[in-house]
C-alpha cells in the first residue's frame, strides 16, 4: 500500500509540475505588466469610472502588445541595434549579471531564430567516439562539399554544445523534427513517445537480410 501511494504520488507531482511552473511564469508576467501599466490607465477618468480593476489590467495587457511590436521594429533598425549593442556591453561588464544575461540572451536567440535557417534537419553522428551515437542538427550543408557543419547540443541546456564538421557519409538522418529533437535533448531522452523512439532507433537497426530460399 505504501509503495502504491509513493509511486502514484510521484507520478502526480511530475504530471502537475510543468503545468504549475507554466502558470507561475505567466502569472508573474501578468503581475509585472499589470503593475506597470495599471497606474497609468487608472489616471484616465473614463477608464477609472467605468471599468473595474481587472478590466484595467486586461486593457494594460492589450496595450502592451503594440508596445512590444514597436520595440521589435526599433531593434531591427540601425539606431535600435546600436542602442541594444550598448546595453549588451554594459551588462557584459557587471561581474555577476553578465553570466545570467548571456544565458538568457542565448536562450532567446535559439527560440527567436528561424529554425528553418538555423537548424535544417536532425542527424546522428559518432560522438564522443565511434560506436556512440549523438543527436545533432545540420547548420550548413554545401552540396559540393563532403563535410557538413552540424551542431551537437548538450543536455539539458541545448544552447551550448559543439560545432562538428562531419563527413556526409558518416551522418545518419533521423525521422524527427527539430522541435522534437530539442525536447529529447532537454529531457535527456526521458520524454519520448513510441513514434519518436522508433524514429530514433531506426538508423541504429542492422540492415535486414533477405530470407534464405527454401530448398525445393
Summarize the structure in words.
Helices cover about 55% and strands about 15% of the residues.
Q: What's the structural blueprint in terms of helices and strands?
A:
Blueprint: H1 2-42, H2 45-50, H3 53-75, H4 78-92, H5 97-112, H6 115-118, E1 122-126, E2 133-140, E3 147-153, E4 161-167, E5 172-173, H7 178-187, H8 194-201
Helix pairs in contact: 1-3
Q: Please give the share of residues in helix.
A: 55-70%
Radius of gyration, rounded? Answer: 25 Å
| Major beta sheet, strand line-up | 4-3-2-1-5
Largest sheet properties: 5 strands, antiparallel
Low-confidence stretches: 207-216
Secondary structure class reads alpha+beta
What global shape is seen? extended
Beta content comes to: 5-15%
Quickly name the level 1 CATH class of the largest domain: Mainly Beta
Based on the model shown, name its key terms.
216 residues; alpha+beta; SH3 type barrels; 3 domains; five-stranded antiparallel sheet; 8 helices; 5 strands
Concise account of the structure shown:
This protein is of the alpha+beta class.
Amino acid at each position: 500500500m505504501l509503495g502504491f501511494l509513493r509511486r502514484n504520488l510521484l507520478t502526480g507531482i511530475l504530471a502537475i509540475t510543468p503545468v504549475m511552473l507554466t502558470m507561475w511564469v505567466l502569472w508573474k508576467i501578468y503581475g509585472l505588466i499589470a503593475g506597470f501599466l495599471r497606474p497609468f490607465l487608472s489616471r484616465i477618468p473614463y477608464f477609472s469610472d467605468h471599468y473595474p480593476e481587472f478590466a484595467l489590467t486586461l486593457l494594460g495587457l492589450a496595450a502592451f502588445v503594440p508596445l512590444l511590436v514597436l520595440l521589435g521594429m526599433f531593434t531591427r533598425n540601425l539606431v535600435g541595434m546600436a542602442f541594444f549593442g550598448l546595453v549588451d556591453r554594459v551588462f557584459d561588464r557587471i561581474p555577476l549579471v553578465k553570466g545570467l544575461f548571456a544565458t538568457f540572451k542565448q536562450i532567446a536567440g535559439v527560440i527567436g531564430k528561424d529554425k528553418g535557417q538555423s537548424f535544417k534537419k536532425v542527424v546522428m553522428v559518432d560522438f564522443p567516439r565511434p560506436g556512440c551515437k549523438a543527436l545533432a542538427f545540420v547548420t550548413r550543408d554545401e552540396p559540393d562539399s563532403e563535410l557538413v557543419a552540424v551542431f551537437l547540443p548538450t543536455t539539458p541546456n541545448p544552447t551550448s554544445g559543439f560545432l562538428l564538421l562531419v563527413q556526409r557519409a558518416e551522418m545518419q538522418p533521423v525521422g524527427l523534427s527539430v522541435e522534437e529533437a530539442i525536447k529529447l535533448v532537454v529531457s535527456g531522452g526521458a520524454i519520448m513517445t513510441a513514434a519518436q523512439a522508433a524514429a530514433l532507433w531506426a538508423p541504429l537497426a542492422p540492415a535486414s537480410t533477405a530470407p534464405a530460399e527454401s530448398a525445393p
